[in-house]
Amino acid sequence: MGSDGGEGEKSTRERILDIALDLFIDQGYDKTSLREIADRLGYSKAAVYYHFASKADILLALHYRLHDMFGGSLDDLNQQVDDPVAWAKVLDTFIGQMLADRRLFILHERNRAAFEKLHRDQLHEDQHSDLEGTFRTLLANPEVPVADRVRLACALGAIMGTLAIAGEAFASVPTEDLTDMIRSAVGDLLTPR
Amino acid sequence: MGSDGGEGEKSTRERILDIALDLFIDQGYDKTSLREIADRLGYSKAAVYYHFASKADILLALHYRLHDMFGGSLDDLNQQVDDPVAWAKVLDTFIGQMLADRRLFILHERNRAAFEKLHRDQLHEDQHSDLEGTFRTLLANPEVPVADRVRLACALGAIMGTLAIAGEAFASVPTEDLTDMIRSAVGDLLTPR
DNA sequence: GTCTATATAGGGATAGAC
DNA sequence: GTCTATCCCTATATAGAC
């Protein structure tokens, strides 16, 4: 399939990313050193540098994992910037995608500063390839009533919050159940009573 | 009033905290060096060390600023751990307090890893003196139905999200208006239709 | 592909002069 | 109260052997 020969075993590159994901969530990106990653990997620091050009490059790869997860729903959101009623539908899709791999979201949520720096330094693409950028553009759009925008911010926060603030509190809750509950909550937020 | 002699001018200590607040929000705690703080202050690094024993000590002082802001409402929440209907009232108070000094909240939101480490290293007090600790305890309480706890997580996320995700988007919105809008949203989340 | 050894820089923190 | 000078450690990253 990919560029790897193996079938069951993961490539070293993927293993590094998995380890980095754990450590970046636990300690934060800045407080995690390549030595720690290399130790868990069982190899030396230089081995890590063989697979990634820099520490930021590891974060970048994780960013792409997250980006791939969304498929086109980010574009959908960008195309309906000024249509508050359309948001609810897009967010439903979002919620499903987010919960499918919660940890990537938690990573993003907990290392916002690092990701922003990454975007400033490396990703000079458009604002909208970025999750945060998309949200901020939407929330700052003066053509949409403030009340609607605040509601959207609350809805986004509700999704993120369930993952980030709760931590491991809902780890044992089946993904489908959690998805349903969050969808219901977001529905209450975006649909007028 | 306080321990300072001056009336109009701030003490150096307070100035350091203000500068640190700005930088920690912008770049994150880890990526901010004492040299940067000292530069903005106009003094040397050693001058900063005169006022604070360590870098972590600066973060600690900011933690106390946040802590003081709450007054007793954190205790209120701790005393009504298993009463979901009481949460709504406490959160109303919370929202007002949070918005009264948004930036302290954003600091906390954006440097969760650093604050957690601070608590592990320095604050061996009780779990409940801490904002996050209080929330996590509440959200993990098995005596409360999961659905209620998820709703609470959404409500907390909605509050945090409006501050953290939105960034400067709502900077021009009057605090009272924003408070009302968030209270209304949280009400919709916690009150069954 | 993985290693050792090393270059280089920057950060936190201390000692002691003024 | 504030400064200069300095120590020490850790981190990123590179060069080159195996």
Structural write-up:
Two copies of one chain form a homodimer. Chain A has about 190 residues and is mainly alpha-helical. Chain A has two domains: about 1-50, Orthogonal Bundle (Arc Repressor Mutant, subunit A), CATH 1.10.10.60; about 55-190. In chain A, about 70% of the residues lie in helices and about 0% in strands. Chain A contains eleven helices and no strands. At the A-B interface, helix 8, helix 9, helix 10 and helix 11 of A face helix 8, helix 9, helix 10 and helix 11 of B.
Can you give keywords for this protein?
globular; Arc Repressor Mutant, subunit A; mainly alpha; DNA-binding; 2 domains; 70% helix; homodimer; 193 residues; 11 helices; 0% strand
Condensed summary:
Two copies of one chain form a homodimer. Helix content of chain A is 70%, strand content 0%. Chain A is mainly α.
